Amino acid sequence: YYVIENVATFFAKVPPLFLWGFMSLPDYDSPSALKAILDSRSMAMQKKFGQNFLINANARTKLAESLDLQEGMKVWEVGPGLGALTTEILKRKANLTAFEIDRGFVTFLQEEIQPLYKDSFEIVSGDVLKTWKDYFAKNGKPDRFFGNLPYNVAAAIVADMIKTLDRKVSYAMV
Fold first, then answer.
1. Cβ(53)–Cβ(31) under 8 Å?
2. Burial 108-130 (b: 16+ CB within 10 A, else e)
3. Rg of the Cα trace of the chain?
4. Which of 13, 93, 95, 108 is most exposed, with the fewest beta carbons within 10 Å of its own?
5. Whole-Å CA distances, 14 to 9, 98, 108
6. Are 105 and 80 in contact, with CB atoms under 8 Å apart?
């Protein structure tokens, strides 16, 4: 047993729903756990979207750290899938907008991730190449652009953003 001296501080650090086990994040390191989530929702990976999962926790952590995030930064993520990199970014208290084309993943994110981070997480459903410019016009430029970019559209996404946002954009690709 332990005593919590400042309840407000305690709950500010740990989202209450996650704390009490009503919601939990998937085991992003387990291919079988991820497959079970897909199967339970009658979903499947779609080659046309270039979908894959990064099942190495150290790699996800290093990628998120490489963004050099500060609290409140605006981050755009393309292709969040089930939210493995998404949650790494949100843990760092960024304001994250995720662009996702797959309706099944959008529903999963809305039901499982968004309630945990409702004030700092927004999902834009649809093809990023068709949705980002309208989102940009309404919300401005992000501080960081990040994603496990689908291989079949990566060059088009990066070129379109550099051309539209600012020619002095710096970026890193892994």
1. yes
2. bbeebbbebbeebbbbbbeebee
3. 17
4. 13
5. 9, 22, 21
6. yes
Residues 130 and 99: beta-carbon distance below 8 Å: no
How far apart are the C-alpha atoms of 26 and 34, rounded to whole Å? 7
Q: What is the DSSP string of 65-119?
A: HHT---TT-EEEEE--TTSHHHHHHHHTT-EEEEEE--HHHHHHIIIIIGGGSTT
What is the C-alpha separation between 164 and 150, in angstroms, rounded?
20
- Tens of pLDDT along 50-107? 677 777 899 999 999 999 999 999 999 999 999 999 999 999 999 999 999 999 999 9
Model pTM score: 0.78
Q: Return d(Cα 56, Cα 160) in angstroms, integer.
A: 30
Query: CA triplet 28, 34, 35: central angle to 5 degrees?
Result: 160
- Distance between CA atoms of 126 and 111, rounded to whole angstroms? 17
Q: Are 85 and 63 in contact (CB under 8 A)?
A: yes
For residues 89 and 54, the answer to whether their CB atoms sit within 8 Å is no
Question: Hunting for tokens 């400042």 — which residue is that?
Answer: 6
Q: Cα dist. 120→71, 91, 114 in Å?
A: 10, 10, 9
